[in-house]
Amino acid sequence: FVQRHGVVVAQTTCNQGIGKVVYERLPDQQLQGFDDDIVRDTSPPFRVLEKCQDLCLRDRTASNNLVRTCTSFDFQPGSRIASFSGSAEYEESTCYLTHEQAHPEGIGNLVLVPNSVHFTEVCLSSSRVERECPNRRYVFERHPRKKLNLPAMDLKEVTATNRSECEDRCLNEFSFVCRSVSYNGAAHTCSLSRFTRRTHPELLEDDPNSDYLENTCLN
């Protein structure tokens, strides 16, 4: 932990200080069966999300600030309540913080749950994160068991030992703007592209060995 202006700031470096711990955002996904700590709050959902991201990065419990390892959490935003006063009121937002991660980093399984978002910590070593999106808590949006099946001419294929290395390869690509990447964990192939599921929604396909990753660290 770093003391800055009297405030304890989460020490979020990794990989011997070269990398930075950020999140992957997995929409409509939930980690099954591993809840170490629960946060419930009727503040605006984005505030609750910031609080949960911070607690997990700092490895702290929600209620009494004790040290507890956290590597991922599920977030369920509360809906806005129609109020007559005109001020915005929200139903309870909930976070489930855990030390566990989904396979292959951990033993957990992800299940499809609409309106739930899973956030998992990842160590990225690209200097671009600090340079171009230093305030972003998540850098890649991840869609498990999916790939963007683009023609070979629209892809640059490289090898990567794991998903975070593949994400770094996308961030560090200089010959074109890498907006998305499909990582095949079985073959260790990392397919970089300037296109996304938004430009080619019809090409997002199921693939049990792949993760589709969208780069959000773009100016």
Question: What does this entry look like structurally?
Answer:
By secondary structure, the protein is mainly beta. The chain folds into two domains: 1-125, Hepatocyte Growth Factor, CATH 3.50.4; 143-219, Hepatocyte Growth Factor, CATH 3.50.4. It is built from three helices and 15 strands. The protein has helices at residues 45-57, 128-132, 163-171, and strands spanning 2-4, 7-9, 13-14, 19-31, 37-41, 72-76, 80-81, 89-90, 93-98, 110-124, 138-148, 156-159, 180-184, 189-193, 204-215. The strands form three sheets. Strands 3, 4, 5, 6, 9, 10, 11, 12, 13, 14 and 15 form an eleven-stranded mixed beta sheet that branches. Strands 1-2 form a two-stranded antiparallel sheet. The longest helix has 13 residues, at 45-57. The radius of gyration is 18 Å and the shape is globular. Mean pLDDT is 90; it is low at 1-9.
Feature tags:
219 residues, Hepatocyte Growth Factor, two-stranded antiparallel ribbon, 3 helices, globular, disordered N terminus
Which sequence of SSEs, written as H and E, runs from N to C?
Answer: EEEEEHEEEEEHEEHEEE
How many domains is the backbone divided into? 2
Report the radius of gyration as a whole number of Å.
18 Å
Average pLDDT level: 90
Oligomer category? single chain
Find the count of extended strands (DSSP E, 2+ residues).
15
How is the biggest beta sheet arranged? 11 strands, mixed
Instruction: Give the count of helical stretches.
Output: 3
Kindly report how far apart the N and C termini lie. Answer: 30 Å
User: Which percent range fits the helix content?
Assistant: 10-25%
Low-confidence stretches: 1-9
Q: Kindly provide the name of the CATH class of the largest domain.
A: Alpha Beta
| CATH 2nd-level architecture of the largest domain | 3-Layer(bba) Sandwich
CATH superfamily of the largest domain: Hepatocyte Growth Factor
CATH topology of the largest domain: Hepatocyte Growth Factor
**Percent of residues in β-strands:** 35-45%
Q: What structural class do you assign from the helix and strand content?
A: mainly beta
Shape field: globular
Domain Apple: 14-123, 133-217
Pfam family, one: PAN_1
InterPro entries: Celegans_DevNeuronal_Protein, Pan_app
Protein name: Apple domain-containing protein
